[in-house]
Amino acid sequence: MTPKSTPALTAYLQSTKAPWTSLLIVTAEQRAESLVHSPPGLALKVIKGRLCKTPATLFAEFARALEFPDYFGHNWDALEECLADLEWLPAKGYILLITDAASVLSNDETEYETFLEILCDAGEAWGSGRAGMGARRATPFHVLFAVSERERIQRAHWGMNAINAEPNRKTNTRPRQPKRGPSPS
Question: Which of 24, 28, 91, 132 sits at 20 to 30 Å (Cα–Cα) from 125?
């Protein structure tokens, strides 16, 4: 029998609606990879957050995990372009699971905000059917940042909702969106 995610998590992963990024709260005894299972037809790719401490290492890890083509330019524009294409990785939807997510760009808030914006832009493009080569259909695209409750609290600026892999556990969550520049007056 194939392990399954909780019904609520599965429904979220199959959705073509925002939020595109979420925190996945895990306990010290849990491995995020054992909690998230890809619904049929969706591609699940695991990104090692501990290898994403700088933009350069983040680009390398995404290229490895998502099997980016050789022409990937290892910069923000190239990451955005590849995330909105993924033709080399055919699937009915995409789930990116970032393990050890507290390590991702932890010393650079500006780069972290850029990263979140790119992920949200990719999710919007896939969710509206504007991504992929000729996709023209809404496609699920979600990124889960796996963190402990303590890590979630330590880094209060995550800029995303929190979900639990276990239905009986509760967390205090406040939805936030990444900054997108100055607010209009």
Answer: 24
